């Protein structure tokens, strides 16, 4: 028996630990690997037909929308983060957290609100444009950049900024020459999340007649029923997402935190009264456009539809759709959090290979929803064909299949939330537990996980926000009779029935606001923004 084999026998936990890591990673990464493999041997006939018809237009629209939304979200999110982090004004604390609330409003909900609101001014044809679609997505997604940038600015040292000011740099020059370059990795992480959300968006782009690659996957799937063509197109989208991941990771290479632990964080500069008025007005305008107008219109439509007895126009009604939404959200979130905790604990006590495998498990979060849905269907269909399950039970078209796809898509949030919090546990606390005789597992359960509880809460809140808003995976994989609030909104807005989409949209926003509130509580208690 080899030395490695003897060591495994002496420490069976090592074999079990590696088996657990590999099993979890395979579970959440296999559907993506299936699609990546489709790029190795592409079908020339499929690609020739796609290129001859709509693919060039899809590529142009996708790239244009991606650049516009990412640039807008970076400018708006970074500017608001600097305003709140570096300046003191009345209501700063409340405004600082209110600026996160647009996360609770799905892009497709804000899309149909503004589509109806502006159509009376410029006409329906003028409203349905790529640029207004980009503006709606910026308002919905800028909080990702805002959260990352705000955390980065708050972590910058006061001495570094004071040195720049002492050399004669103005506040604006200090921002562009010192603060912004130091925060670049965090801003890049937020921008990467925005880019992934744009790549995966279906509802918003469909409302504004923007033909993206993700929308093309849906149209090929539903319009032609050609699963092979949909898989090929989803594979191309996978390649684009992987390129974005590589760019984001390269932007962080070689970057280290410049602030020492003993150095104080920067002190917000007190603004003059005119400057305070401008700061408050700017924040209020953003909140009014991103949150205020959608909420007012949704409440008005909901009251009107209830008064006219037209609120419920789909089978099952409000309770049915709300229950399904909460059930799918709870099941997927619990699986993500539990598997994330197990993987984070196992990886924490091992070396670079284990950490690399942990990173591999997060690739689903970078994949658009239609891509994950196609990969999940291919995987589940292969299992069904092998008849491993009891007679009459199929994974494709089941609740288990839908939850599996949601876990593949959002597992990274649960895993990285726990991992980031475990990294912040003081090594002395872990070493003390080990000295007292506690093993790795007991140390994790009694010391590390309690210390990571707010990180777990933040991850659960972000998971809830993402899953509640999720549309393409649910549309493609939902079992018969299991419709969610997002599907209700999709069905109503597809027929321009804005008032009938208001009630489910308002419920989604309300639940999302609760989740955002939980996220803010976790961040206040020291949880890190997940990256």
UniProtKB/TrEMBL annotation:
<feature type="transmembrane region" description="Helical">
    <location>
        <begin position="271"/>
        <end position="296"/>
    </location>
</feature>
<feature type="transmembrane region" description="Helical">
    <location>
        <begin position="15"/>
        <end position="39"/>
    </location>
</feature>
<dbReference type="GO" id="GO:0005886">
    <property type="term" value="C:plasma membrane"/>
</dbReference>
<feature type="transmembrane region" description="Helical">
    <location>
        <begin position="326"/>
        <end position="348"/>
    </location>
</feature>
<keyword id="KW-1133">Transmembrane helix</keyword>
<feature type="transmembrane region" description="Helical">
    <location>
        <begin position="95"/>
        <end position="115"/>
    </location>
</feature>
<keyword id="KW-0812">Transmembrane</keyword>
<feature type="transmembrane region" description="Helical">
    <location>
        <begin position="395"/>
        <end position="415"/>
    </location>
</feature>
<feature type="transmembrane region" description="Helical">
    <location>
        <begin position="187"/>
        <end position="208"/>
    </location>
</feature>
<feature type="transmembrane region" description="Helical">
    <location>
        <begin position="59"/>
        <end position="83"/>
    </location>
</feature>
<protein>
    <submittedName>
        <fullName>Unannotated protein</fullName>
    </submittedName>
</protein>
<feature type="domain" description="ABC transmembrane type-1">
    <location>
        <begin position="322"/>
        <end position="519"/>
    </location>
</feature>
<feature type="transmembrane region" description="Helical">
    <location>
        <begin position="360"/>
        <end position="383"/>
    </location>
</feature>
<dbReference type="GO" id="GO:0055085">
    <property type="term" value="P:transmembrane transport"/>
</dbReference>
<feature type="domain" description="ABC transmembrane type-1">
    <location>
        <begin position="59"/>
        <end position="248"/>
    </location>
</feature>
<feature type="transmembrane region" description="Helical">
    <location>
        <begin position="127"/>
        <end position="147"/>
    </location>
</feature>
<dbReference type="InterPro" id="IPR035906">
    <property type="entry name" value="MetI-like_sf"/>
</dbReference>
<dbReference type="InterPro" id="IPR000515">
    <property type="entry name" value="MetI-like"/>
</dbReference>
<keyword id="KW-1003">Cell membrane</keyword>
<feature type="transmembrane region" description="Helical">
    <location>
        <begin position="228"/>
        <end position="250"/>
    </location>
</feature>
<keyword id="KW-0472">Membrane</keyword>
<keyword id="KW-0997">Cell inner membrane</keyword>
<dbReference type="Pfam" id="PF00528">
    <property type="entry name" value="BPD_transp_1"/>
</dbReference>
<keyword id="KW-0813">Transport</keyword>
<feature type="transmembrane region" description="Helical">
    <location>
        <begin position="497"/>
        <end position="523"/>
    </location>
</feature>
């Amino acid at each position: 028996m080899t030395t490695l084999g003897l060591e495994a026998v002496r420490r069976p936990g090592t074999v079990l630990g590696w088996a657990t890591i590999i099993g979890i990673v395979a579970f959440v990464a296999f559907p993506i690997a299936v699609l990546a493999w489709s790029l190795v041997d592409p079908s020339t006939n499929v690609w020739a037909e796609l290129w001859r018809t709509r693919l060039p237009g899809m590529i142009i629209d996708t790239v244009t929308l991606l650049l516009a939304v990412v640039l807008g979200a970076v400018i708006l999110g970074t500017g608001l983060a600097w305003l709140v982090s570096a300046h003191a004004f009345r209501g700063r604390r409340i405004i600082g957290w209110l600026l996160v609330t647009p996360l609770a409003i799905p892009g497709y909900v804000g899309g149909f609100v503004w589509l109806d609101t502006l159509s009376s001014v410029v006409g329906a044809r003028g409203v349905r444009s790529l640029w207004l679609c980009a503006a709606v997505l910026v308002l919905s997604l800028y909080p990702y950049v805002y959260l990352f940038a705000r955390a980065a600015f708050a972590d910058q040292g006061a001495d570094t900024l004071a040195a720049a000011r002492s050399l004669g740099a103005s506040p604006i020059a200090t921002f562009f020459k010192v603060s912004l370059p130091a925060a670049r990795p965090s801003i890049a992480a937020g921008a990467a999340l925005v880019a992934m959300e744009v790549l995966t968006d279906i509802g918003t782009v469909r409302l504004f007649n923007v033909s993206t690659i993700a929308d093309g996957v849906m149209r090929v799937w539903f319009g032609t029923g050609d699963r092979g063509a949909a898989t090929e197109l989803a594979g191309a989208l996978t390649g684009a997402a992987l390129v974005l991941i590589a760019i984001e990771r390269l932007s962080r290479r070689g970057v280290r935190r410049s602030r020492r632990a003993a150095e104080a964080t920067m002190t917000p500069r007190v603004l003059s009264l005119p400057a305070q008025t401008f700061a408050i007005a700017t924040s209020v305008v953003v909140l009014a456009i991103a949150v205020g107008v959608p909420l007012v219109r949704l409440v008005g439509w909901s009251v009107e539809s209830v008064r006219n007895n037209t609120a419920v126009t789909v089978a099952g009604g409000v309770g049915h759709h709300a229950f399904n939404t909460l059930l799918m959200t709870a099941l997927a979130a619990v699986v993500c959090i539990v598997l994330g905790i197990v993987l984070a604990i196992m990886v924490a006590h091992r070396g670079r290979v284990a950490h690399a495998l942990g990173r591999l498990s997060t690739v689903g979060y970078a994949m658009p929803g239609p891509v994950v849905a196609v990969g999940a269907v291919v995987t589940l269909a292969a299992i069904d064909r092998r008849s491993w399950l009891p007679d009459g039970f199929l994974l494709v078209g089941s609740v288990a299949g839908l939850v599996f796809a949601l876990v593949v898509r959002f597992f990274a949030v649960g895993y990285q939330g726990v991992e980031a919090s475990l990294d912040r546990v003081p090594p002395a606390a872990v070493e003390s537990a080990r000295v007292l005789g506690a093993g790795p597992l007991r140390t994790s359960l009694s010391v590390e996980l309690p210390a990571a509880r707010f990180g777990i809460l933040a991850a659960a809140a972000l998971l809830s926000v993402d899953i509640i808003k999720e549309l393409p995976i649910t549309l493609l994989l939902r079992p018969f009779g299991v419709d969610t609030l997002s599907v209700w909104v999709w069905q109503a807005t597809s027929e321009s029935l804005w008032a009938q989409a208001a009630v489910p949209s308002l419920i989604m926003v309300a639940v999302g606001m609760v989740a955002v509130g939980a996220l803010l509580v976790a961040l206040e208690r020291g949880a890190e923004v997940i990256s």
